[in-house]
Amino acid sequence: MTTGMPQEAEASITTTETDLEVVSTELERWLTAKLDTATDVRVYNLSRPTHSGMSSVSVLFDLDWTEDGVATTAQLVARLAPEATAFPVFPRYDLQAQFDVLTAVRQCSDVSVPRVRWVENSADALGTPFLVMDRVTGAVPVDNPPYVFGGWLQESAVADRARVQSNSVHILARIHGIDADLRTLSDSSGLRRHFEGERAYYEWTRRHDGLRIPVLESAFDWLEEHWPSDPSEDVLCWGDARIGNIMFQGTDPVAVLDWESATLAPRELDLGWFIFFHRQFQDLAEQFSMPGLPDMFRRNDVVAEYENATGFTVRDLDFYLVYAALRHGIVMSQIERRRIHFGEKQPPENLDEYVMHHAMLAGLIDGTYEWEKK
After folding, report:
1. Assign residue 292 a region: left if phi > 0, alpha if psi is -120 to 50, beta otherwise?
2. How far does Cα 8 stand from its chain's mean position?
3. Using CA of residue 288, residue 294, residue 296, residue 297, what is the dihedral sign?
4. Residue 327 · residue 205 · CB < 8 Å
5. pLDDT, tens only, 109-125
6. CA neighbor of 207 nearest in space, from 361, 324, 93, 337
7. Who is most buried in 119, 324, 328, 354, counting CB within 10 A?
8. Burial (CB count <10 Å: 0-12, 13-18, 19+), residue 354
9. Which helix H or strand E contains 169, and what residues bound it?
10. Residue 192 backbone zone (phi > 0: left; psi -120 to 50: alpha; other: beta)
11. Smallest Cα–Cα separation from 145: which of 271, 13, 239, 255?
12. 3-state DSSP call for residue 107?
């Protein structure tokens, strides 16, 4: 943890009880069968990233094999759906859809995504479905603790941060311009379907305790009352559009990661999430009297950069910002439940405190939240 960082900024979050030794043995057995004609298949150097995600589980490993007399080594990542004992954040993990989207993006655009090699949809091999992709080397602005509290991005020169911002916004523009056959996403396409999916997700999080979180319920009501009269056309949306899912070498993006929420929806879905996500981290930094990164990803700057890159006029952004805060609020409420489940904290008396950014969301709903702070 960076010196001077508040202890509360980094949460202790249990995501898995996976035994890496078991994964190594079973993964080697599975890959031996998958590579078929290869010999000397060996899986080694297994590890988990220091800053792993809060939903699925990533395992880094090296793979050796020999085929047609040629010895080959690959550095790979296995992404595992969480096992039932890990108190999953989401009701389902469609790894086949992630595989299909990553493959299509790689084939149909110049957006840098890892090469995905295999997907296993059954739980037979590792006890849970997984996919395997090439490992990419670079730096990621981490979530836990949030990158606004310290690290390479905060330590970068102002001009370099500006380039990171511009390059990141242009990634959104390029993703939204991808023309690919993505029938795998058709069941969740459109703003209304997406919204009803979030409502169903919220109800799923309540299935055991029955808790109704007032600020989230108010957000659902607000969104219905302010529904866009003419949403923009559906495009490929990344779904989890934020710099924490971009790997950089210097200021250049080298990999766009985490496509599990990809969908066909208005592009403002990504823009709202992108702007909101940084801002809620910035608010958290200011809550602890730390500077954060106030010069980055300001609402007006992001919109101007995006419109200049695409020629598209962004509309209904207030709606999508509230929607982003609601979506993340549901996720955070489930993560909070998981922390309580594993004894990492006690249930809060105020139900809104299941949502880390509840004050921000309440301000967005009642119109008192200020975006462009001086």
Report:
1. left
2. 22
3. positive
4. no
5. 999 999 999 999 999 99
6. 337
7. 324
8. buried
9. helix 158-176
10. alpha
11. 13
12. helix
3-state secondary structure of 220: helix
Nearest to 97 by CA among 79, 110, 85: 79
d(CA 369, CA 263): 28
pLDDT (tens digit, 9 = 90+) per residue, 120-176?
Answer: 999 999 999 999 999 999 999 999 899 999 999 999 999 999 999 999 999 999 999
**Identity of the amino acid at 245:** N
> What are the C-alpha distances in Å from 68 to residues 27, 71, 134, 364?
22, 8, 22, 61
What 3-state DSSP class applies to 166?
Answer: helix
Domains of the chain listed by start with CATH number? 7-134 (3.30.200.20), 147-366 (3.90.1200.10)
- The pair of structure tokens assigned to 299 is 């609402």
Q: Average the pLDDT over 76-94 and give the result.
A: 88
Instruction: For residue 189, give both structure tokens.
Output: 């396409």
For residue 329, what are its two tokens? Answer: 């609020």
pLDDT at 4: 58
Q: Tell whether the model's pLDDT for residue 10 goes beyond 70.
A: no
**Residue 347 is encoded by which pair of tokens?**
């249930």
Catalytically annotated residues: 240
Q: Are 243 and 210 in contact (CB under 8 A)?
A: no
- Residues 6 or more apart from 116 whose CB is under 8 A from it? 98, 99, 102, 103, 106, 131, 132, 133, 134
